Automatic annotation (TrEMBL):
Keyword Amino-acid biosynthesis: no
Keyword Oxidoreductase among UniProt keywords: no
Protein name: DUF8019 domain-containing protein
Lineage: Eukaryota, Sar, Alveolata, Ciliophora, Intramacronucleata
UniProt KW keywords: Signal
Organism encoding this protein: Paramecium octaurelia
Domain DUF8019 as annotated: residue spans: 262-334
Signal peptide stretch: 1-21
Superkingdom to which the source organism belongs: Eukaryota
Length: 336
């Protein structure tokens, strides 16, 4: 008896990476990251990426525990909050809580993944609006790091030696809504840095020269030098660190994202019709009205690509050449 396994992994990508992936298509029919066995139970492939998982933080106990090596960390006045899966507790960070992890193995290839929840705030002015979620480094070295801009609701990854330059790193296109869990992944190779939000490739940075790894501690929740300036509150759960690039389809599986997200890619925001139609790479088209309101709308709203009442370009607009407006363009995969 023959068993045929057909596995399809559809990944939401930016235009640059989608175009690049077409040029670098694999000759393999299937790729496995998990171990699988022959009929007699003999492993035919060893577990790959799980061996590179170095940090998996748990907030279920009185102390924060790294489930990989059972290291324990004390965090002053750290409260415990709910989780997405209701399978334990998350950590509640309010600015004064700093989790410091001593120097860990750092390579040009790495992945940081975590669940984040930002409560809706009153909008009161804070001493600093851009605050760290995590950072490996010191006051002069900020890579790798993930910051959140509370004013503009965007994620920022600083790459150069300063956090004051507007062009110093990677800024998310998405502006996720408050009061919902968000799955964020930062993936690095020696030449590229990719930011995923809810399993969707949000933005990508091509390195001219790869940033050098540093030997400073990893700070989670805040940093000592921003403790007096950042009072940002957020919930953190399942913080993970891998010493390799985790594949996009695994990130999507972790995010448990909807099927629609696997068959779309971001086009452009506030663009005219010519820009909208040009935003879709080969194999994709401007989503039709039926496609958009059958699931794509939910993805666009959750990721903050659009607000109520915003205009959206559709395939029908491209045919009618209605080019008097500006709006959002989302591209759907061709199904024929």
């Amino acid at each position: 008896m023959f068993f045929i396994f057909c596995v399809f992994f559809l990944v939401v990508k930016s235009q640059d990476e989608l175009a690049e992936s077409e040029e670098m298509e694999s000759d393999c029919d299937m790729e496995f990251d998990m171990p699988f066995c022959s009929g007699n139970g003999t492993p035919m492939q060893e577990n790959s990426f799980l061996n590179t998982l170095k940090i998996l933080l748990s907030f279920n106990d009185m102390k924060v525990v790294n489930k990989i090596d059972q290291s324990e960390y004390e965090v002053e006045e750290l409260e415990r909050g709910p989780t997405l899966y209701d399978d334990g507790y998350s950590g509640v960070f309010k600015g004064s809580q700093i989790l410091e992890i001593p120097q860990n193995e750092q390579t040009p290839y790495f992945t940081y993944s975590m669940w984040l929840f930002f409560p809706r705030t009153s909008g009161a002015e804070r001493p600093r609006s851009v605050c760290p979620i995590f950072q490996k480094g010191n006051e002069e070295t900020h890579y790798p790091s993930l910051y959140y801009d509370q004013k503009h609701k965007q994620f920022i990854v600083y790459i150069d030696q300063t956090v004051t330059s507007e062009n110093s790193g990677l800024v998310s296109v998405s502006r996720p809504l408050a009061n919902q869990w968000i799955y964020v992944s930062l993936v690095s190779t020696s030449s590229k840095l990719k930011l995923y939000i809810n399993g969707v490739l949000d933005n990508i940075k091509i390195f001219q020269a790869a940033p050098k790894p540093n030997d400073h501690p990893l700070y989670v929740g805040n940093t000592p030098w921003f403790k007096d300036y950042c009072s940002m509150m957020f919930l953190l759960d399942k913080f993970q660190y891998y010493t390799e690039e985790i594949k996009a389809y695994f990130i999507q599986a972790q995010a448990q994202f909807q099927l629609e997200s696997a068959s779309i890619h971001f086009g452009c925001i506030s663009c005219n019709l010519e820009e909208a139609t040009g935003a879709c790479i080969s194999g994709y088209h401007l989503c039709t009205k039926i496609e958009f309101y059958s699931g794509v709308y939910n993805v666009a709203r959750q990721l903050g690509w659009m607000d109520y009442g915003d205009f959206v370009w559709t395939y029908q607009d491209a045919i009618r050449k209605n080019d008097k407006k500006k709006g959002l363009a989302v591209c759907c995969i061709d199904s024929f």
